Amino acid sequence: MTAPIQAPAPRVPRLLAGFYGGNTRSVVARGMRVVARNNWLIILTGFFEPVFYLLSMGLGLGALIGTVQFYGRDVPYAAYIAPALMAVSAMNGALYDSTMNVFFRMRYGKIYDQMLSTSLGPLDVALGEIIMALFRGLLYACGFMVVTTALGLNLAWTAVLAIPAALMVAFGFAAVGLAATSFMTSFQHLDIVFFVMLPMFLLSATFFPIEVYPETVQLVIMALPLWHAVDMARQLTTGLIQPSIWGHLTYFAVMIAVGTTAATLRLKALFLR
Predict the structure, then answer these.
(1) Sites in the chain below the pLDDT cut of 50
(2) How far apart, in whole angstroms, are the C-alpha atoms of residue 261 and residue 215?
(3) What is the pLDDT of residue 44?
(4) Phi, psi angle pair for 69, to nearest 5°
(5) Per-residue confidence (pLDDT) for residue 1, from 0 to 100
(6) Residue 16: its pLDDT value, please?
């Protein structure tokens, strides 16, 4: 009787030894099973909030406002806020998944204790959770793109690039959200996340141009990640692409690198002592 053939162990770079087991897909597979069984309705309902904002403010209020200036061009108000709400949708989906869901698994479900007692490393877990948040962000971005296309709010072919841009936004927020959640010890700490999200949503040029603020306030807003997400998505859907888009991409690349590294180190410190 021949012995069963075992799959070779994944090769792991020496630099990542102790952090990465090369099996992120098992974390993602578990997350997908949980979504299929329990969370699909929650994910679906989370998509509708920005759509309602678009219908009420973009089409309703937009009929009174008319057009808004964006990089020297008049843009219909509904087309102006639609990409901003897509960016908000990506942020919301990523943060909800990487904070509330992760907090329960970390502090009450003891899921990570079990995962990290196997060959999985903290980077496997961090990447797996981030990919699950990206899945939610992808669903929201694609669904929102269908709605805005049906309403005729995408003004250039470059609007299709708003989907990968939204994924990058979701990646950045998910990585930072996961790192922040690793420091939380009670459900009350989650209120801090929502406290930060609300002013970002209202002030990051989501509903009106940033130029309405005094210059000092503009500088503060331009430091916020959601402003970079909104301006990047808006450039892509209107076709008014500026050199500043490279700054937005760099901002989120740094956010992803810092957030993923911090989350990995925190998971290692918490569960592999």
Answers:
(1) 1-9
(2) 34
(3) 65
(4) -75, 130
(5) 44
(6) 55
| Residue among 130, 119, 80 at smallest CA distance from 237 | 80
* Paired strand residues for 67: 76
Amino acid, single-letter form, for residue 56: S
Residue 57 CB burial class (10 angstroms; 0-12, 13-18, ≥19): middle
Residues 6+ apart with CB under 8 A from 130: 98, 171, 174, 175, 178, 260, 263
SS3 sequence of the chain: CCCCCCCCCCCCCHHHCCCCCCCHHHHHHHHHHHHHHHHHHHHHHHHHHHHHHHHHHHHHHHHHHCEEEECCEEEEHHHHHHHHHHHHHHHHHHHHHHHHHHHHHHHCCCHHHHHCCCCCCHHHHHHHHHHHHHHHHHHHHHHHHHHHHHCCCCCCHHHHHHHHHHHHHHHHHHHHHHHHHCCCCCHHHHHHHHHHHHHHHHHCCCCCCHHHCCHHHHHHHCCCHHHHHHHHHHHHHHCCCCCHHHHHHHHHHHHHHHHHHHHHHHHHHHHCC
Taking the CB of residue 78, how many other CB atoms lie within 10 A of it? 22
Q: How many CB atoms lie within 10 A of CB 7?
A: 5
Cα torsion for 92, 94, 95, 100, to the nearest 10°? 110
The pLDDT value given to residue 173: 94
Q: Which of 86, 64, 91, 95 is nearest to 77 (CA)?
A: 64
pTM recorded for the entire structure: 0.86
Dihedral of the alpha carbons of 237, 241, 244, 250, in degrees to the nearest 10: 60
The confidence score (pLDDT) of residue 45 equals 66
pLDDT for residue 220: 94
Within 10 angstroms of residue 143's Cβ, the number of other Cβ atoms is: 17
Cβ neighbors of 211 (< 8 A, separation 6 or more) are 218
